[in-house]
């Protein structure tokens, strides 16, 4: 699985958009980009994933560059409850033995008033 | 009710004791996983199981064993606990899907080995 690089921490004012970057310059053509978050020692929570196209769901948007070497998770209107560690994970789809996730150290997002 | 449950939620034990952590799920998923998390670090995979008859080692399986008693149950055992196994342990489940599979995590078990 491709290695990812994320900033260790970021701050965001409540109500503003939080843009969390992730570099994955060694990503392969069949690898997806996944985002999870972990709120204060709770179990990680799936946010979104994508392959090539930008994706949006009720929680966030995922912007993947055309060369797929980096991506950005966007929380459009951050709230205090979005304070968490955000993990960017790159891996192939879930066929065969490739289903397991490899978590790095993530980005600690602090949303402030 | 929670889809993925873990018992116990907290456990303090002594070095050399045998400990079992249990995980149950009601999501009907075939795939189950055990991770551990140390302070300030990401999750590391201990064992995973793609169905009842399939058990696989993860990146840090030494000192641990697992049992998949049924589709819904996946237990993690520490045969002889040692202090550096003090950590937060998470169970997760996922379905099979070609594109990619969301993993659903339990609330975690905080284990302290004295």
Q: Layout of SSEs?
A:
The complex is a heterodimer of chains A (113) and B (114).
Chain A (H helix, E strand, L loop, with lengths): L8 E5 L4 E6 L7 E8 L6 E6 L4 E2 L4 E4 L5 E6 L8 E9 L14 E6 L1
Parallel strand pairs in A: 1-9
Antiparallel strand pairs in A: 2-7, 3-4, 3-8, 5-6, 6-7, 8-9
Chain B lengths: L3 E4 L2 E4 L5 E7 L5 E7 L5 E9 L2 E4 L7 E6 L2 E6 L8 E8 L8 E3 L3 E5 L1
Parallel strand pairs in B: 2-11
Antiparallel strand pairs in B: 1-3, 3-8, 4-5, 4-9, 5-6, 7-8, 9-10, 9-11
Molecular structure report:
The complex is a heterodimer of chains A (113) and B (114). Chain A is built from no helices and nine strands. Chain A has strands at 9-13, 18-23, 31-38, 45-50, 55-56, 61-64, 70-75, 84-92, 107-112. In chain A, strands 1-9-8-3-4 form a five-stranded mixed β-sheet, with no helix packed on it. Chain A has a four-stranded antiparallel β-sheet with strand order 2-7-6-5, with no helix packed on it. Chain B is globular, with a radius of gyration of 13 Å. By secondary structure, chain B is mostly beta strands. The A-B interface holds A 32, 34, 36, 41-46, 49, 51, 87, 91, 93-95, 97, 99-106 and B 4, 31, 33, 35, 40-45, 48, 50, 56, 58, 88, 90, 92, 94, 96-108, 110.
């Amino acid at each position: 699985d491709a290695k990812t690089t994320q900033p260790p921490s970021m701050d965001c004012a409540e109500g503003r958009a939080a843009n969390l970057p992730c570099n994955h310059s060694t990503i392969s053509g069949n690898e997806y980009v996944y985002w999870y978050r972990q709120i204060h020692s709770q179990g990680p929570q799936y946010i979104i994933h994508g392959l090539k196209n930008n994706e949006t769901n009720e929680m966030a948007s995922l912007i993947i560059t055309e060369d797929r070497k980096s991506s950005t998770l966007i929380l459009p209107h951050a709230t205090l409850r979005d304070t968490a560690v955000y993990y960017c994970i790159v891996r192939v789809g879930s066929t065969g033995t490739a289903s397991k996730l490899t978590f790095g150290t993530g980005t600690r997002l602090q949303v402030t008033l | 009710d929670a889809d993925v449950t873990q018992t116990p939620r907290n456990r303090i034990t002594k070095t050399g004791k045998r400990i079992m952590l249990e995980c149950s799920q009601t999501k009907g998923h075939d795939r189950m996983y055990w991770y551990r998390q140390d302070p300030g670090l990401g999750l590391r995979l201990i064992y995973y199981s793609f169905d009842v008859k399939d058990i696989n080692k993860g990146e840090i399986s030494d000192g641990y064993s697992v049992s998949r008693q049924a589709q819904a149950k996946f237990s993690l055992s520490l045969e002889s606990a040692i202090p550096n196994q003090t950590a937060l342990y998470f169970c997760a489940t996922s379905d099979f899907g070609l594109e990619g599979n969301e993993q659903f995590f339990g609330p975690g078990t905080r284990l302290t080995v004295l």
